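Quick one, probably user error.
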């Protein structure tokens, strides 16, 4: 009945209707004032979880979950605590980040509502109705709740709020906008059935029979003044000559208003004020749990009947408020616009028809004094004729004799005798005058509806088969739920089909047709339940697919790197460390490796950049060193030159350079240099005559630049390496030292 939720969104307490600690629980709503509260009284010993500003969750009289925030707590010495709460949406939406002056340009209802609810924790309900495409704006700072109320005016709708709860928390909070169209759905509150209390209040205190009308102020400060009166209203409620006066000033700035316009407005206003204010307060039992069709919602039109009231009461009114006693399950309804009927007006027509029927039943033979027959020339002929009323044919009939056959007392039939036969003289079948029976009309409508329903049902079965047969749907509980909802939908469809196939236009009865029509409504409900489960299944499929996709991508990446390693001489790929080792390939090997790499990378889009970095360690100068004999230099660091690691760069003077640039990777910068120095290389013992390759990344601002030679202590190697202007490029130089020690390169 009452759930208590903490700040973390967890339900931490529950109080049932049968709990003796609960003394009173009243839920109040008013759609005109847009207020909603829930107040309850409870023993103080049960308020441990209610001392803070926790949230309260209840079910309203229609079973919808609603959320409130504790706003006021009052404890007394007798051990009782009164707790007052307010609707949570007032705080969540009203206290969200406000709007600056803004404009919603040509938005649908859902688009505008979605913008208002952004970052509030509330969502747009699928039940939100379409109100067209409208534009609305505001010129001052507004709270989001104020803008929401402005949407109600712009789209001519009413707003409602509800929540959905899970096993131990609130899953979603929804806001719905729907059109306010009070409709009578068959609910009658009647004395002796569910009407337990009725109070009719008539207030004459504000009744006026004359108004002093004052127009807007014109230039110069002059204003039009005139008087409107209603003598009939004065004679009904006032003393002779003693009018009940009031003042009326139109709410307008129209300085050009003339006397005629002011009199019209004043007369309209007086017509409103001359009527006494009548209000009704109705208390009714909540019987919808026992009678599911006896449902009353705010905004519905209901009828109230009490013939024992003085005078007998017949009222049709819109329900604008309700006060629901959750313990006693009583409801006090408040009504807005109403129409009151007098019993005499309602029963006059019925009484008149009843008297006519009684008169006919009392006559054994009816004389028709004025049977009118249309002649060809358009003139009328009046004549009298006797009609014999009996269950058997009259004896000795003559031509044109009329006989009212009452052998079937429920359907009397008028017949005329002609040439030895009794011929029907009145129509007993609508088809005989070119019409169709309501059974045939309803049967035809249901058959046409079923044709469209069958097409939708076939599409539904196909969609359900694809979802249930999906290899990515592995949640057995979810599969069982979808199957259960699908079976329920198919069962109703089969019932509709069986009912229609068991009837024809001639054999269809109104009772069976109405039952079949009700099945169509049940089918729509089953479809809605099924689609709710299908949405959860689609989310589960998407989640499973993404998981498998990520696993598949890693597996294919490792497979591709393994294939690349197989192409390299003595290649090996370690999937744990993500390291690729191999002998240094020659030009042909490198070309073969490049082609294999391109082929392996084609099905892998997400990991292309990662694969390229791993495979092109050799080209791009990364820390992986590939040696013909898998020999690593410099104590296993993987680098031939100690300064090739950016972290161990020396100062600029070491390289005879201008400066060292810091960044993601360090760089040596030269200004107007013709030679680049790599510093003394005497820390390493070189093998004379052996080939060494030195790679470096270089960028120049000089057009048409070239690396023409590599000079070192033992000689010079001439070469031509073009360097493009303005971009970093990777270059390599292979040389053979003639000494075991080199001073610089």
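Nope, works fine. Designed sequence:
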């Amino acid at each position: 009945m009452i759930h208590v939720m903490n700040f973390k969104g967890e339900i931490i307490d529950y109080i049932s209707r049968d709990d003796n600690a609960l003394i009173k629980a009243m839920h109040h709503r008013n759609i005109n004032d847009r207020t909603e509260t829930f107040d309850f009284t409870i023993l103080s010993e049960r308020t441990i979880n209610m001392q803070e500003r926790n949230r309260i969750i209840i079910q309203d009289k229609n079973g919808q979950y609603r959320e409130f925030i504790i706003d006021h707590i009052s404890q007394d010495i007798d051990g009782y605590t009164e707790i007052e709460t307010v609707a949570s949406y007032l705080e969540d939406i009203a206290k969200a980040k406000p709007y600056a002056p803004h404009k919603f340009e040509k938005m649908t209802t859902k688009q505008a509502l979605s913008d208002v609810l952004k970052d509030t924790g509330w969502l747009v309900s699928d039940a939100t109705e379409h109100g067209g495409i409208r534009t609305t704006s505001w010129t001052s700072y507004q709270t989001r709740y104020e803008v929401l109320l402005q949407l109600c005016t712009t789209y001519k709708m009413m707003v409602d709020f509800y929540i959905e709860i899970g096993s131990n928390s609130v899953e979603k909070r929804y806001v719905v906008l729907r059109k306010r169209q009070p409709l009578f759905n068959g609910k009658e509150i009647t004395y002796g059935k569910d009407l337990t209390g009725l109070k009719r209040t008539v207030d004459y205190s504000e009744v006026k029979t004359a108004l002093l009308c004052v127009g807007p102020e014109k230039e110069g400060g002059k204003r039009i003044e005139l008087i409107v009166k209603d003598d009939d209203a004065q004679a009904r409620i006032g003393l002779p000559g003693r009018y009940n006066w009031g003042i009326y000033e139109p709410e307008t700035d129209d300085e050009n208003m003339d006397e005629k316009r002011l009199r019209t407005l004043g007369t309209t206003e007086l017509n409103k004020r001359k009527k006494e204010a009548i209000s009704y307060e109705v208390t009714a039992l909540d019987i919808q749990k026992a009678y599911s069709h006896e449902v009353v919602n705010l905004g519905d039109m209901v009828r109230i009947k009490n013939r024992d009231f003085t005078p007998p009461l017949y009222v049709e009114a819109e329900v604008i408020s309700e006060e629901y006693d959750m313990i006693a399950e009583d409801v006090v309804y408040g009504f807005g616009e109403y129409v009151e009927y007098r019993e005499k007006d309602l029963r006059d027509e019925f009484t008149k028809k009843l008297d006519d029927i009684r008169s006919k039943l009392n006559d054994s033979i009816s004389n028709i004094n004025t049977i009118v027959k249309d002649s060809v020339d358009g003139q009328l002929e009046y004549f009298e004729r006797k009609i014999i009323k009996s269950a058997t044919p009259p004896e000795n009939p003559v031509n044109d004799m009329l006989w009212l056959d009452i052998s079937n007392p429920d359907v009397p039939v008028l017949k005329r005798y002609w040439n030895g036969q009794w011929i029907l003289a009145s129509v007993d079948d609508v088809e005989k005058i070119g019409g169709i029976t309501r059974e045939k009309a309803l049967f035809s409508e249901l058959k046409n509806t079923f044709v469209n329903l069958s097409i939708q049902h076939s599409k539904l079965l196909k969609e359900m088969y694809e979802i249930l047969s999906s290899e990515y749907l592995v949640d057995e509980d979810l599969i069982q739920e979808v199957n259960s909802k699908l079976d329920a939908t198919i069962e109703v469809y089969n019932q509709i089909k069986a009912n229609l196939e068991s009837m024809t236009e001639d054999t269809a009865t109104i009772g069976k047709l109405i039952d079949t029509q009700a099945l169509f409504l049940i089918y729509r409900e089953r479809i809605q339940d099924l689609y709710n489960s299908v949405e959860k299944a689609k989310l589960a499929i998407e989640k499973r697919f993404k998981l498998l996709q990520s696993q598949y991508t890693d597996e294919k990446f490792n497979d591709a790197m393994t294939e690349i390693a197989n192409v390299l001489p003595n290649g090996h790929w370690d999937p744990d460390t993500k390291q690729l080792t191999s002998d240094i390939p020659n030009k042909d090997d490198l070309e073969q490796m490049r082609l294999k790499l391109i082929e392996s990378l084609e099905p892998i889009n997400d990991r292309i950049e990662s694969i390229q970095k791993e495979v092109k360690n050799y080209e791009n100068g990364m820390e992986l060193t590939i040696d013909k004999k898998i020999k690593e230099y410099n104590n296993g660091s993987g680098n031939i030159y100690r300064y090739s690691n950016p972290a161990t760069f020396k100062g600029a003077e070491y390289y005879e350079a201008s400066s060292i640039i810091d960044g993601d990777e360090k760089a040596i910068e030269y200004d107007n240099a013709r030679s680049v120095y790599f510093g003394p290389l005497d820390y390493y013992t070189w093998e004379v005559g052996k080939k060494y390759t030195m790679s470096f990344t270089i960028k120049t601002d000089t057009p048409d630049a070239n690396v023409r030679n590599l000079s070192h202590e033992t000689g010079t190697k001439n070469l031509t390496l073009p360097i493009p202007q303005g971009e970093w490029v990777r270059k390599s130089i292979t040389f053979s030292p003639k000494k075991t020690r080199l001073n610089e390169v």
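The chain has a mean pLDDT of 79.
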